[in-house]
Amino acid sequence: MKVLITYASAGAGHFKAAQAVYQHLKNNCPSIELVFVDALEKTNGVFKFFYKGSYSFLIQHALFLWRLLFWLTDFKPASSLIRPLGFIINYCHSRSFIRFLISEQFDCIFSTHFFPAELAAHLKGEKKINSRLVTLITDFGVHGFWVSEGTDCYLVATEATKRRLMRKGVTAAMILNSGIPVSQDFLKPLDTTLLHEKFHTDRERFTVLIGAGSFGIGPIETLVNLLHKEVQILVVCASNRRLYNSLKQKGYPGVHVFGFVDYMAELMSISHLIVTKAGGMTIAESLSKGLVPIFMMAIPGQERENVGVLYLYGIGSYTRKIARVKEMILDFKEHPQKLDAIKANIDRIKKPHALEEISRVICQGRAGCAC
Fold for domain 185-349? Predict the structure, then answer.
């Protein structure tokens, strides 16, 4: 059996989900011939530059325009005009990817982004490929772009996500509530005593993890200034060097500052809650660790949709006001039963066996596949 795992490098979550599935299949299904491809790498350079860069530019410099585009492309009367034009542009610039799909004739194409999923579905409709098409929606909400005629199975994060997809015309039989897959790092139990020793943290203190890479300096620095005497704080600055240097210079006791990390699961394991943005993969990773989220940033569009779905399950709080974030954190610290209640809600929707579920869908009906 030959399987393509494909994504588009327009956001880290799509890659992480694809990588998690690829690694699981590689480790557990040796009979499968696996190919792992970023679809944008098989487009021309100019198209790839604008496809990857336009989203970042809009959310940083023209958020109102992003909000308008998200709404228009998800509003059926407008989308019926815009989407065909967008598809023509995508198709014309993706000749290499299209030739690749036709020449390889995969038994299954598993996509974690709507860009390769739509191209594959079109080729299947044209009878140029006969692959089983499986699409993983990497957010908790659903934009219309995820729906492509010819897709055999959609994998979603929650039952609420499934209902939203059904409202867009997809039948229930084509949707599986598998959950969003995360790396095995987030699934295996960790020794928190050893982790506290590793990071020189106090296991007795209430600990807040801040994923700060997307926030800029001001909001996070202000939040740390307000909280450092009240709680223990772990700040992951990622590429935000100015924030990293500024917090390091302050040298607050009980504030632990990190740059890029590949051990986020370890930091989550010793934290009580996380302050973060509302990206689908970030949420999935947090839920897998039973970590209560507070969202200080939710981009209009998919991230606001993510917050809305979690709200239905009694999970997560959202505010853009720093003083309110502090109030929420201290309220959880003083009333641990509130934290426990949300963790119970998390336990009801998190999917620790998402990778196994997805592997079974990919291997469905194929002889010699021992996943």
Answer: Rossmann fold (3.40.50)
Residues 6 or more apart whose CB falls under 8 angstroms from that of 321 comprise none
Q: Reduced to 3 states, what is the DSSP secondary structure of residue 230? A: coil
* CA geometry: angle 151, 156, 157, nearest 5 deg: 170
40 closest CA partner among 107, 109, 119: 119
Which amino acid appears at position 199 of this protein?
F
- Indicate the SS3 state at residue 351: coil
> Half-sphere exposure (CA, 13 Å, Cβ side) for 203?
9
Q: What does the H/E/C string look like for 238-255?
A: CCCHHHHHHHHHHCCCCE
Cβ neighbours of residue 325 closer than 8 Å, sequence gap 6 or more: 223, 275, 294, 296, 319
Domain boundaries, the chain: 2-180+352-363, 185-349
Tokens of 277: 């943005």
What is the SS3 assignment for 128? coil
Decide if 2-180+352-363 and 185-349 have a common fold: yes
pTM of the model: 0.93
HSE-CB at 365 with a 13 A cutoff on CA atoms is 5
**Helix/strand/coil (H/E/C) assignment for every residue in 3-35:** EEEEECCCCHHHHHHHHHHHHHHHHHCCCCEEE
Backbone angles phi, psi at 239, to 5 degrees: -85, 0
Rounded average pLDDT over 144-151:
96
Distances in Å between the Cα of 192 and the Cα atoms of 42, 45, 105, 264, 267 are 43, 45, 47, 13, 10
Nearest to 247 by CA among 206, 268, 218: 218
- Separation between Cα atoms, residue 335 and residue 366, nearest integer Å: 52
Q: Tens digit of pLDDT for each residue in 339-356? A: 999 999 999 999 999 999
Q: d(Cα 75, Cα 78) in Å, to the nearest integer?
A: 6
Domain 2-180+352-363: assigned CATH number: 3.40.50
